[in-house]
């Protein structure tokens, strides 16, 4: 991740594009005869050329608000979000980013800020999906806490969480294999791996996992395996509404539950066997002692 | 020999400067022309004459001086730009059109790939529909991309136009006579602004950068390809040796012009190094300013965005 350059005086300098942060909260429609109150740009823009240029502020006269301009990162965030709509047509490429920039009123050259293989776009998408999933899970948890909904059993919870998350891929499913291969590039592996692990962690957290022993690792490893394999199955699933994928998911989660049951069964069986052996040994030694004593 | 020559020139220019001051000719602040010190107006005049005299042999000299590597540098610049069809490029100091031609080639191949991909998706269309889409796209091989080549020197533009005709570039190309410090274009017009091996010859670099900022659209990109500072000491010595001993000789032999190529080499030494140029670009208002060294700093590509 490249470190951003934030010179302290730049926020005050005239910027053609970086909007004021406060403008993001204003839902009022933009009037094209905007009061160009802040001295951002010496040239006068035609309204159609820069639709998201300086917006009128309804708070004050003159131009000396003390708001901050949005940072370059936020602008990049906006461009990538706008680019997602062009992914089904252009794939996860710089072209999609260029089209996204165009819809924001920027030049297509703004796509040069990102890598030409679309890595940032994919990582942005994955992180957005993860955030959405966390929000949904949190809402669900609140409902359960308020008593308005039943607490789901673990296997159903995991199934639903993974299904919700995978359903977010459906609009982009055609180009997703390309995205997966880009995420596996050595350059992207640290970021993509950390996004994956934090998502799995989130799911287990909301599932109510509070283990502090080795179980923490096994649970996450198991769920990561389930998620990845289901994702791959989804890639080449052609059944209506991906029924086959969800059935596969159900089976895998059931397997995982059985495995943990089996593990505990094996453990108790092992203990029983050991106890039996010990008992047998004690009996044999008692018998020997009593025979010797006779 | 080199040091002696420099000192002689310095002495001469100092005495010349004194004479000028005595004559009361206030033709502007002192500037450098190679290792000489001249006034601003004189510098412009001298540089114009340099390029006027080398224009015809410009490409040949580029090839022989850099052993053909300048083509690779310009290709790398184009790959870094990665223009999509529909891009409007302004190539300043683009004289003989190297960058412009490369831009057209690049955009053409991207456009072809785009069309191929579109056709692959249209597997379910009728023959009539496919034929119609062929017709529509056939006459748009550049995808509305355009490049404007702007240069201050008439001779260089003439050579460029002849080259374009010779190589068969006709559409998407315009040739404009203009000064980088005062571009004859409106605000917010271009997607990309490039200046390849030209900003060194601009007398007021800050004005050129401000003009670049002005004519770029919001989101537009500034790219500058220029000779820069080599930090590796061994390489720097070899580079100096080559520059001062070999290049002027080549200039004399091939172009019959020792002085112009002496100026070239000296102007490279006088140009600000990478970090300084980066600061100047930031001062003009560009964001995300970055540079990439090619060949250990012999050449650097600076990039900035108008955000």
TrEMBL record, chain A:
Domain of life: Eukaryota
Metabolic or biological pathway: Cofactor biosynthesis; ubiquinone biosynthesis
UniProt keyword terms in alphabetical order: Lipid-binding, Mitochondrion, Transit peptide, Ubiquinone biosynthesis
GO MF annotations in UniProt: lipid binding
The keyword RNA-binding belongs to this UniProt entry's keyword annotation: no
Keyword Transit peptide tagged: yes
Coiled-coil region list: none
Matches recorded under Gene3D superfamilies: Tetracycline Repressor, domain 2
Stretches assigned to the Ubiquinone biosynthesis protein COQ9 HTH domain: 72-102
UniProt region (Disordered), positions on chain: 13-74
Sequence ranges assigned to domain COQ9 C-terminal in this UniProt record: 189-259
GO terms classed as biological process: ubiquinone biosynthetic process
Subcellular location: Mitochondrion
GO cellular component: mitochondrial inner membrane
Compositionally biased intervals (Basic and acidic residues): 20-29, 38-48
PANTHER family assigned: UBIQUINONE BIOSYNTHESIS PROTEIN COQ9, MITOCHONDRIAL
Assembly information from the UniProt record: Homodimer. Heterodimer; two heterodimers of COQ7:COQ9 come together on the same side of the lipid pseudo-bilayer and form a curved tetramer with a hydrophobic surface suitable for membrane interaction. These two tetramers assemble into a soluble octamer with a pseudo-bilayer of lipids captured within. Interacts with COQ7; this interaction allows ubiquinone (CoQ) isoprene intermediates presentation to COQ7 and facilitates the COQ7-mediated hydroxylase step.
Family note: Belongs to the COQ9 family.
Described function: Membrane-associated protein that warps the membrane surface to access and bind aromatic isoprenes with high specificity, including ubiquinone (CoQ) isoprene intermediates and presents them directly to Coq7, therefore facilitating the Coq7-mediated hydroxylase step. Participates in the biosynthesis of coenzyme Q, also named ubiquinone, an essential lipid-soluble electron transporter for aerobic cellular respiration.
Alphabetical list of NCBIfam families matching this protein: diverge_rpsU (TIGR02396)
UniProt protein name: Ubiquinone biosynthesis protein
Automatic annotation (TrEMBL), chain B:
Organism domain of life: Eukaryota
Methyltransferase found in the keyword field: yes
Pfam families: Ubie_methyltran
PROSITE patterns: SAM_MT_UBIE, UBIE_2
One Gene Ontology term of the molecular function aspect: 2-methoxy-6-polyprenyl-1,4-benzoquinol methyltransferase activity
Function: Methyltransferase required for the conversion of 2-decaprenyl-6-methoxy-1,4-benzoquinol (DDMQH2) to 2-decaprenyl-3-methyl-6-methoxy-1,4-benzoquinol (DMQH2).
UniProt-recorded name of the protein: COQ5 protein
Organism: Atrichornis clamosus
Originating gene: Coq5
């Amino acid at each position: 991740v490249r470190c951003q350059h934030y010179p302290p005086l730049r926020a005050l300098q005239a910027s053609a594009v970086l909007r004021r942060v406060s403008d993001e909260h204003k839902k009022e429609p933009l009037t094209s005869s905007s009061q160009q109150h802040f001295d951002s740009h010496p040239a006068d823009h035609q309204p159609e050329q820069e639709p998201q240029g300086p917006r009128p502020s309804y708070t004050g006269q003159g131009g000396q608000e003390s708001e901050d301009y949005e940072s370059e990162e936020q602008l990049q965030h906006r461009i990538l979000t706008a680019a997602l709509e062009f992914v089904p047509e252009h794939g996860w490429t710089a072209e999609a980013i260029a089209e996204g920039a165009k819809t924001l009123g920027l030049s297509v050259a703004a796509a040069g800020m990102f890598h030409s293989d679309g890595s940032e776009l994919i990582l942005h998408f994955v992180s957005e999906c993860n955030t959405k999933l966390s929000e949904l899970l949190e809402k669900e948890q609140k409902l359960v806490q308020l008593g308005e909904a039943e607490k789901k059993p673990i296997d159903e919870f995991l199934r639903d969480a993974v299904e919700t998350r995978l359903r977010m891929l459906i609009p982009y499913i055609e180009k997703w294999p390309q995205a997966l291969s880009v995420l596996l590039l050595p350059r992207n592996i640290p970021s993509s791996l950390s996004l994956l692990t934090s998502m799995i962690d989130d799911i287990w957290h909301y599932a109510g996992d509070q283990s502090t022993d080795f179980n923490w690792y096994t649970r996450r490893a198991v769920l990561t395996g389930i998620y990845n394999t289901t994702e791959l199955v989804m890639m080449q699933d052609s059944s209506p509404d991906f029924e086959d994928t969800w059935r596969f998911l159900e089976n895998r989660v059931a397997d995982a539950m059985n495995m943990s049951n089996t593990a505990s069964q094996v453990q108790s069986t092992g203990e029983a066997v050991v106890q039996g052996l010990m008992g047998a040994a004690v009996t044999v030694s008692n018998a020997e002692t009593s025979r010797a004593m006779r | 020999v080199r040091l002696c020559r420099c000192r002689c020139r310095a002495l001469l220019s100092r005495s010349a400067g004194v004479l000028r001051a005595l004559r009361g000719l206030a033709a502007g602040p002192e500037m450098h022309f190679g290792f000489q010190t001249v006034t601003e107006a004189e510098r412009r005049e001298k540089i114009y004459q340099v390029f006027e005299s080398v224009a015809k042999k410009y490409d040949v000299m580029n090839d022989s001086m850099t052993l053909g590597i300048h083509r690779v540098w310009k290709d790398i610049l184009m790959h870094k730009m990665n223009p999509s069809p529909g891009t409007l490029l302004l190539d300043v100091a683009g004289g003989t059109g190297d960058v412009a031609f490369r831009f057209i080639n690049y955009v053409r191949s991207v456009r072809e790939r785009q069309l191929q991909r579109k056709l692959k998706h249209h597997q379910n269309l009728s023959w009539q529909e496919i034929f119609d889409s062929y017709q529509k796209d056939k006459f748009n091989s550049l995808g509305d991309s355009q490049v404007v080549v702007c240069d201050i020197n008439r001779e260089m533009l003439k050579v460029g136009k002849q080259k374009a005709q010779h190589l068969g570039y006709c559409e998407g190309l315009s040739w404009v006579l203009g000064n980088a410090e005062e571009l004859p274009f409106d605000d917010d017009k271009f997607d990309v602004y490039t200046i390849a091996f030209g900003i060194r010859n601009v007398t007021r670099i800050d004005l050129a950068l401000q003009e670049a900022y002005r004519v770029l659209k919001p989101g537009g990109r500034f790219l500058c390809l220029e000779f820069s500072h080599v930090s590796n000491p061994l390489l720097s010595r070899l580079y100096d040796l080559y520059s001062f001993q070999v290049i002027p000789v080549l200039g004399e032999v091939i172009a019959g012009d020792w002085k112009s190529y002496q100026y070239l080499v000296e102007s490279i030494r006088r140009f600000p190094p990478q970090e300084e140029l980066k600061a100047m670009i930031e001062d003009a208002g560009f964001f995300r300013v970055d540079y990439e060294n090619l060949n250990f700093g012999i050449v650097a590509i600076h990039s900035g965005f108008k955000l």
